[in-house]
Amino acid sequence: MKVVFLTALTILPVLSLFIVPPFAQPLWYHDFADQRCLLCIPNMWNVVSNLPFVLVGVWGLVYLARCQPLGNFEEPRDRWFYGFFFAAVALTGIGSAYYHWQPNNDRLLWDRLPLALAFMALFALIVAERVHYRAGITLFIPLVMLGGASVVYWHVSEGWGEGDLRPYLLVQLCPLLTIPFILMLFPARFTLTQDLFAALGCYLIAKALELLDRQVYSQGQIVSGHTLKHLIAGLGPYFILHMIQRRRRLPQQAGQSALTGY
Q: Are 243 and 66 in contact (CB under 8 A)?
């Protein structure tokens, strides 16, 4: 029944594609509150605030290259899947800095593409570790490709003059709806589930700060909501790194297989 519930929760947003008409990326999105040029860097704080993504991404790759995958991974090969996630996180920082240097739709592609890849990679890993291992690993590449395709489709559709942002928003909405229920409904096989909730909380706070960009900046014109969004969002991958560094396998429940999740 839990799997059926999650399936239904995933299908409901998909149905919105048949209800909500296509809509393009609003051009006002690129008009950020803080556009100060400092040290010859345009939009300086929105550019450099992406540094946490790069640092955490590289840190994660270095850790995974050196670690011995014993009790903190389901299978030794899983560190390669996490490696993909952290590589995408590092590229997100680079792509976002490139976009914010000169915000426009063409550059926004390189901001969103690695972010979508990282988001879907993490979603597949959570499915593997909480719902069904083989299912999550099998879905890893299709989900990552789906995330990337949603961004490419949006970018191509903008070139057609009929921008369609719906698929990109959908690949964010589905995991955002299902991940909390996965964490609550399915038993953990490792410690430090709280780090996953912390990462999810960072994402939600970051989205709120993005919406409050100008309101935050108006409080003294010190820092904008979008700059804070980058800093808070950069904490999310850090919690994932902290989790895989320190977590330990929990004793298996009677009759539960580590490879099937049942």
A: no
